[in-house]
Amino acid sequence: MPYQTISVVGLGYIGLPTAAVFASRKKKVIGVDVNQHAVDTINRGEIHIVEPDLDMVVHAAVVEGYLRATTVPEPADAFLIAVPTPFKGDYEPDLGYIESASKSIAPVLKKGDLVILESTSPVGATEQMAAWLADARPDLTFPQTHGEASDIRVAHCPERVLPGHVLRELVQNDRVIGGMTPKCSDAAVALYKAFVEGDCVITNARTAEMCKLTENSFRDVNIAFANELSIICDKLDINVWELIRLANRHPRVNILQPGPGVGGHCIAVDPWFIVSKTPNEAKLIRTAREVNDGKPEWVIEKVKLAVADFLQANPEKTARDVTIACFGLAFKADIDDLRESPALSIALRLGQFHPGPVTAVEPNIVALPEKLRNTLQLSTIEAAQAEADIILLLVDHKEFRNVSSIKPEKMKIIDTRGVLAN
Ligand code: SAJ
Question: What CATH number does the domain containing 14 carry?
Fold first, then answer.
């Protein structure tokens, strides 16, 4: 393979596993990140994020000398950009990290290099990245002006891995390869074949960008359908979990699961990249976002009603006497990631306005982050159960699926995930 030295820019949840997997295939990998703490941690053979088995792979790669991290880009044969693409306050995509990553690698680019954008991006971002590179290096030629004859190859190859299963999915998933020209695509396939066992399917850069956004929008729309059903069923006094189980027995129906809202760093963000480009056309995609974003507020209203019911049944008590226990803070089951979590935002809101105690049970963390400690108390399943008047099930962690550990007869239970119903 022509690409022996690979630079991965952005050593987060996607970049670090990708760097480590290339290194495990005995490629020389230079990881680049602006975060000095991340760079130092990786160079000690340790990791600064949580992902099963990643610690072992990074440790081996660093010890064997295949992976090294730095804050300053160095020459390489291929560059993979895996930096965040958040949105701004108005849901417009923020390409600032891609812009600074491009500008940081531009000085070390040389003829024959390949630059791949892996970050989930709005349509047109790869062309924009190539334009930033061309502006910074007028001495080199790029595909947008020189086509197949360009000095530098550019492609978009979006990541599609599921947090918690990243190392397996990186290797096994099919990969969409969107080169700015066919030769750019061929170059990217040659690179990924170092570890990808799935198919590398070639398309153009714009289709690859839209493909990634489409996958996550598809899931968002389907979760919104389930969330809307849960609100409808609550009004009609129908058990939504039973309803979905029954409907899913139809051979062509496969409804997803309702929850307290959609979290994580992708599904709640990426559909907006379609909406921002085509605001008049993307009606369903926008509505799905609004339905899912509205779900935490609906859950909070349910808790307020439960508190009112409790006080009506116990007139000698005040709201100060009502203990609410939130089961789960992570953004989905069986992970410890609290970022962009609807469960966490609901627990925090309750902690801020409810005058009585609000406890949180999160078996995947040992301590609450510092900034949450004034608002929430971390508890165990047993202690929270013993003290709670209202249990709010927010995440379907495996620890909560044991029905016998939560006794509905003793307290009011609001089960946003169908943990007790399934
Ligand atoms: N959720 C529900 N109900 C469901 C499924 C999910 O409420 O039936 C919620 C989860 O609890 C969570 C959110 O949706 O809050 C997102 O979780 P997820 O497991 O659907 O997805 P992510 O964000 O962990 O990963 C997604 C994946 N995309 C798809 O499945 C189409 C992953 O393959 C992508 O690589 C990743 O986004 C990404 O990086 O874009």
Answer: 3.40.50.720
